[in-house]
């Protein structure tokens, strides 16, 4: 268990300078990194600030001195809790500091303990806001680009709800929309044909429960993974329902799905507006926020490039596509 320590104390000397004393000297190596690589990363993110380290005293001068010192204090708290620091975690902590969020609260939150004791937790402020919205609302829409953890965190919270007996089953569904390939040419019966579309949901489920544990729940009927077409005519009580890839529903399918929700159920709808493959472009996710805003128990959470937790290049790709789309949009203000 990580040793407890008193939180660092920020000392502001002038509006342009601040300092903090790290009381546990042994944490300095993890904080600064080998050959001060983490320190250099922070310096690059705040080029107007001058950071100096003397022993375990960190002093900062510059217009964002207080913010940078608070950033160091949050990193110390993460180290104290037993979390290691790497380049991506430093980047995410910097983003949170700029948004006046406390990284220790965001990265310290536990969603569920997955297979082999691995802790599933939010990695960004947007992901924490998404998890909180799911906990607090009956229906939550998670909208954002690939790699933001929309589906993965929803499955994690569904597993947590099942394990704590808040619900009696999990229902995972997504539309089977052809994106360049045709279902009719795939081998097998209907379920075999749609299985590739459901595979991402299986993967997330197996990551939480291990394949054997997940299969046992599927066999018992406690977990159901099915294409959206199988939802018609049903009422889902005491269920945690996840509709993935909702941008590929039609407006009629979206209405059908949302009206399946019964008593004691919770629903999460995930989608990416930039990946609409539904024929004719009539997406049930487009315009849904205008229709449902103001209804109690429904929340919309928009994730963005800062919430991408895959390889850094994924975030750069998202930015590139967003830039091109913005430039080609005739309604965009120039």
Automatic annotation (TrEMBL):
GO terms for cellular component: cytosol. Transmembrane segments: none annotated. The keyword ATP-binding applies. One of its GO terms (molecular function) is ATP binding. The keyword Cytoplasm applies. Gene3D superfamilies: P-loop containing nucleotide triphosphate hydrolases. Residues 120-322 form the PhoH-like protein domain. Its main location: cytoplasm. It is found in: Cytoplasm. It holds the Pfam family PhoH. Keywords: ATP-binding, Cytoplasm, Nucleotide-binding. Belongs to the PhoH family. This is PhoH-like protein. It comes from freshwater metagenome. The lineage of its organism: unclassified sequences, metagenomes, ecological metagenomes.
